[in-house]
Specification:
Distance between the termini of chain A: 44 Å
Number of strands of chain B: 2
Largest sheet of chain A: 5 strands, parallel
Order of helices and strands of chain B: HHHHEEHHHHHHH
CATH superfamily of the largest domain in chain A: Response regulator
Oligomer: heterodimer
Number of strands of chain A: 14
Number of domains of chain A: 2
Largest interface: A-B, 33 and 40 residues
Radius of gyration of chain B: 19 Å
Number of domains of chain B: 1
Structural class of chain B: mainly alpha
Number of helices of chain B: 11
Largest sheet of chain B: 2 strands, antiparallel
Shape of chain B: globular
Order of helices and strands of chain A: HEHEHEHEEHEHEHEHEHEHHHEEEEHHH
CATH architecture of the largest domain in chain A: 3-Layer(aba) Sandwich
Number of helices of chain A: 15
Strand content of chain A: 5-15%
Strand order of the largest sheet of chain A: 2-1-3-4-5
CATH topology of the largest domain in chain A: Rossmann fold
Structural class of chain A: alpha/beta
């Protein structure tokens, strides 16, 4: 009798502690600029992340535990990003972190995660080196769900040189890591076509006058201006071109889709071209649900940066799939699971079928993004054929054939997830 | 040649923006030998208050651009008086040499944070009161708004100079800047004159804010870089000279645009700063400044 009571007591205690353990949330860090010139990207990313976390939590969370987001503003400053990383790792004890908009911040901060063996799901920053920073180490904890600069530059060059047959291009890049690393990739991609930019100019964040840069491009006879920068200064470039009465097409990295470029340049933004992984167009049920949920939750019609929101949303689902498959919140186990994801993950950008491997931490390949264009104050598909086929989800190139099948098999997966 | 003209035009517009902010530094330095390091923030607040009246950020537009300017100037004057009252007067009272530096910087940060909370952290578009299509002039293009900036800035500086030289109140300001103690003994309320100079200085900054906002972008951080460049202008031109800041502004503005074109856009800020160092080394009072003789 006494013994049974004791056993029962043990059982209750064990059950209680198990419950306490189960109820403990999974803490995921979110680092991005929620203030300043990069904030449309940071805020959209964060809102996309929150949306995904809310959905997952509503369905019972991951491993029976709720996801708790720890959001921190890195102000797009490298030194602030480092502080945030240390706080998230040491004080908040996060399981993983999603985020990073600014490539410089990302490069400065992620070494702390690498050392702590905590995975990072980079969802917006694009510098090519980001996933290769720790190439020489046996394990790499940095993953990415955005289209990197090499992919974007390839698309830009293809559009400008192959399709539109321009031979004289001018590059205007800002002086941040983002602008300068992007410029390097761009020059490399142009080089491969045997083309050297006729003008390569630089400007600073908060510059109010772009006359010298644009005049140099104009004098060099540029037929197109390629930009690498963020919203407010891109608007100064578009406005500056109108001031000089010089009208050539403007094309650039995906940041030309930012709300603060479109608003501040107004009519001068029309026609700007950029690669986009996601365009705010409800052409699949998943995208429709995502856009409507976003509009409802944040009371906006136009998402400030649709690409950031979509990639942020997807990054949480990718990470959750990794945690689920690992059956643990242990960093190395999550990393291993992410490198070998068995079930496809349905996101808004694409369906991720084995998005990562031991050597490849890029979820997006060159075939996934499309060319977007600013029209009527919004970003739309630049080409009708892309718009028509927009509902066909483009999946990662290396696994093209099985991925297509996976896309069809998604409803079954979704059922399982529920 | 057309390129040079275009660069000079853009440089003049840029330089006048710097000059009109630097003018504000010069006003308070003349009367009290103190500076408002929040001059850039005064400009930013002026622009954002103006945007609230003339734009649609806070439910407007309530007034058109020209009607809004007097209100913004009143707001700027009040803001400047507040800065003097909270930040500078206590420091002057205890004859602290540095207290006002910290307190005006602190107030600048507070103003920036308040602005971020009211107007958000994003850069906003300021609707232009005139056409945004460029005018052609001597083979170069100029925005109508740039002409308004130059004319408006010159008119304002002229108005302040005339006020100082011709009116009895202005004479009190001049007397205070010549010798504060002597002016006090002559029955001039020098404390009030200093408050007035701060009000005037922030008023010019607020006015500058609404003038330049249609060509720059408007936001809580618009003032910081401009305030710093204007400080360089004030030192190049001389903190005691109204003409000095105009010349200093034009030098810096034109140096930036021409260096950007003829040398490299990566180095466009360098010549202005080299000039700053040269001026400090050769003529510390500035190109047009009166050399202060400090008797010890």
């Amino acid at each position: 009798m006494k013994l049974t009571l004791k056993v029962a007591g043990f059982a209750v205690a064990a059950a209680l502690s198990a419950m306490a353990f189960a109820a403990e949330p999974i803490r995921i860090g979110v680092s991005g600029p929620f203030t300043g010139g990069s904030s449309p990207m940071g805020v959209s990313m964060r809102d996309g992340v929150k949306l995904a976390a809310k959905e997952i939590n509503a369905k019972g969370g991951v491993l029976g535990r709720q996801i708790e987001l720890i959001e921190r503003d890195d102000e797009a400053k490298n030194e602030r990003g480092v502080q945030v990383a240390q706080e998230l790792i040491n004080k908040e004890k996060v399981v993983a972190t999603v985020g990073y908009i600014n490539s410089g911040v990302s490069l400065a901060s992620q070494r702390f995660y690498q050392e702590a063996k905590i995975p990072v799901m980079n969802n917006v920053s694009t510098a090519t080196v980001i996933t290769q920073q720790f190439k020489d180490q046996p394990d790499n904890y940095i993953f990415r769900s955005s289209a990197n600069d090499a992919i974007q530059c390839g698309m830009i060059v293809k559009e400008v040189i192959d399709k539109r047959k321009y031979t004289k291009v001018a590059i205007l890049a800002d002086s941040t890591n983002y602008g300068q690393l992007g410029r390097e990739d761009l020059e490399k991609a142009l080089d491969a076509k045997g083309i050297k930019a006729v003008a390569v100019e630089k400007y600073n964040i908060k510059d109010v006058d772009m006359t010298p840069q644009l005049l140099k491009a104009k004098e060099a006879g540029a037929q197109v201006v390629i930009t690498y920068g963020i919203g407010p200064e891109l608007a100064q470039i578009a406005n500056g071109m109108v001031k000089l009465g010089w009208k050539v097409p403007m094309m650039g990295s995906w940041t030309l889709s930012m709300g603060n470029f479109i608003d501040n340049a107004g009519p001068n933004a029309e026609g700007a071209l950029m690669p986009q992984t996601f365009i705010q167009e409800a052409n699949t049920p998943k995208r429709k649900a995502f856009i409507e949920a976003y509009q409802k939750a944040y009371k906006v019609d136009r998402i400030p940066s649709p690409v950031s929101a979509a990639q942020g949303y997807d990054s949480v689902y990718l990470l959750a799939a990794g945690i689920k498959q690992a059956g643990s919140t242990d960093g190395p186990k999550i990393k291993d699971a992410l490198e070998n994801l068995k079930e496809p993950v349905e996101g808004v950008v694409t369906v991720y079928n084995q998005p990562f491997s031991k050597t490849d931490h890029e979820a997006i390949t060159a075939n996934i993004p499309v060319i977007g264009m600013v029209k009527g104050g919004r970003v739309v598909y630049a080409y009708d054929e892309d718009k028509k086929t927009g509902s066909e989800v483009r999946t990662k190139a290396t696994k093209a054939a099985p991925a297509a099948k996976a896309a069809k098999a998604v409803p079954a997966v979704m059922e399982k997830a529920k | 040649m057309e390129i040079l003209i275009q660069l000079i035009f853009s440089g003049i517009a840029l330089g006048m923006i710097y000059a009109v902010i630097a003018f504000g530094y010069q006003l308070t330095f003349a009367t009290s030998a103190t500076l408002n390091f929040g001059q850039g923030e005064a400009l930013m607040l002026g622009a954002l208050v103006g945007l609230s009246f003339a734009g649609n950020v806070l439910g407007g537009p309530y007034l058109n651009f020209w009607m809004m300017i007097p209100l913004v100037m009143v707001f700027g004057a009040l803001q400047g008086a507040l800065v003097e009252f909270i930040g500078v007067r206590p420091a002057i009272k205890i004859k602290s040499e540095f207290g006002w530096i910290m307190s005006t910087i602190a107030l600048a940060i507070i103003f920036k944070n308040v602005a971020e909370n009211i107007w958000g952290k994003d850069d906003l578009k300021f609707p232009s009161p005139v056409s945004e299509a460029p005018l052609h002039f001597l083979g170069a293009n100029v925005l109508p708004m740039e002409i308004i900036i130059v004319v408006g800035a010159l008119a304002m500086m002229l108005a302040v100079e005339i006020f100082n030289r011709k009116s009895i109140y202005g004479k009190a300001v001049v007397a205070t800047s010549n010798d504060r103690d002597a002016a006090g003994l002559m029955g001039i309320n020098t404390r009030l004159v200093i408050t007035f100079s701060y009000a005037l200085s922030s008023m010019t900054a607020a006015f500058a804010g609404v003038l330049i906002a249609p060509v720059t972008l408007t936001g809580a951080t618009m003032g910081s870089v401009l305030g710093l460049k204007a400080f360089a202008v004030a030192i190049i031109g001389g903190l005691t000279s109204g003409i000095g800041v105009i010349v200093g502004g034009l030098i810096l503005g034109i140096a930036e645009t021409t260096t950007g074109f003829y040398i490299s856009t990566g180095y466009k800020d360098v010549p202005g700063l080299v000039l700053l160092l040269l001026v400090l080394a050769v003529k510390p009072a500035g190109l047009f400044g009166k050399t202060a003789i400090k008797k010890v």
